[in-house]
Amino acid sequence: MVAMVTRIALTGLASAVSVVSLTLTGPAGAAPALPTGIRPLEGRARPLEWGTGPLTVAALPRITYVAHRGGAREVPENSMTGLVAAYERGTAQVLDFDTRLLRDGTPVVFHDETLNRTTYLGGEVRGLDAREWRGVRLRPEDALPGSWRSERPPTVAEVLDRFGGRIVLMLEAKDPRSLGRLAGLIRARGLTRSVFVNSNDPEVARRVHRLGLLTQLWRSARQLRTDRPERWRSYVDLLDVDHRARDADLARAVKSGIRRVWAHTVVTDAQRDRVLALGCDGVITDAPGRLARAAQRGARP
Fold first, then answer.
1. Least CB-packed of 47, 148, 271, 291 within 10 Å?
2. What GO molecular function annotations does the UniProt record carry, in alphabetical order (predicted)?
3. Which domains does the chain have, with CATH numbers?
């Protein structure tokens, strides 16, 4: 395989400089390339930096932007190159990705149960092992801006190794059976305060909390109609709410006592301005670059 090594120069809060290499692996004969207009990650300070230890949620700004699946309207979703591009652009303070479990128990970065929508193959993700996973190639959407090459979807370990401690991460555990594996990967890298573990199930969120990890619970607009979020405040660190929910339901979430309430999946400045005006303090978006260019209105002081 051909490897493209990109170096990121990061300046610590205490003026210390730490240089980290990101290695991107693509299909045989072609290394994944950043799209037109995106420069390599050499010699440039990043928007979030650390001093003596890994960057944690304590460093997040009052209003936080999350690149959902890396920013799926701007980059190939859940791809290493897409995550690198989102990190390089600096328009989000958190990188989000989805996780699935392979047949042999390897956690990988992927959203769907099947390969059909985003790769050149078909069949269930859980039907593959780690060796077979190396033969999977992502199929970038034609509608994406820029020029993107096909590449292998990464494993969770690879993403944690490349970004862990350098920017806050958010991963959704699509398979609750993966929690033990994910916890082990996060703990081994000292990232228990740097990675949110997301689920739609309050009981799974409770398990995440018991494992000593940062707990994120997402809820749909329909679920929020009858939810009582204050019941979860003892074990949920981040409540992830549907921006399409009614004003009263979002207001109830904001007043729940849960420290962070972020809204998904926002793609327009009007959607963003509404949820911020209602008191949400984070925006999970497929278009972080677009929102970064749009003036923000309506956020509470």
1. 47
2. phosphoric diester hydrolase activity
3. 52-293 (3.20.20.190)
